[in-house]
Write a structure and sequence with these properties.
Length: 130
Amino acid sequence: MMKLAAGEPINLFEGDGFKGFGKLGLENESAFNADTIFTKFISSAIGLITVIAIIWFIFIFITGAIGFISSGGDKNAIESSRKKIMNGLIGFMIVVLGIFIIKLIGTLIGLPDILNFPAMFSNLVGVDVN
C-alpha cells in the first residue's frame, strides 16, 4: 500500500509486459516491413484458428459422449452420437493437418516456400524484397 500512496509505479509483469499492435508494438524500425507484419498476422491467425478448433472439438466430443451415454440403447441415438464424434475428430484432424496440406499444395503448384511469404515473394518477383 505504501507504493500506491507514494505514487511509485508497480511492475505487474516481468520483462516487457504488454505490447500494442501496429507501430506501438514494433519498437525497432527493421521489424516494420510489410512482409514481416503480414507473416506475423498470418501466424497469429493460424494459431487462433487452431485454438478455436481445439475448443470446438472438445465441445463436440463432450456433447457426443453425453448423447452416447444417455441414448439408453436406442440405435438411432447411438449412431447420431457416433457420427457427431467422428465428424468432430475429422474436422479437428483437417485443421491440424491443414498446414501440411497447404505446404503440399504449394509444392504441387511450384511454390515450395508458400508459408514463408518474404521468400515466396522474392521468388515470384525475382528480386530480393528485404
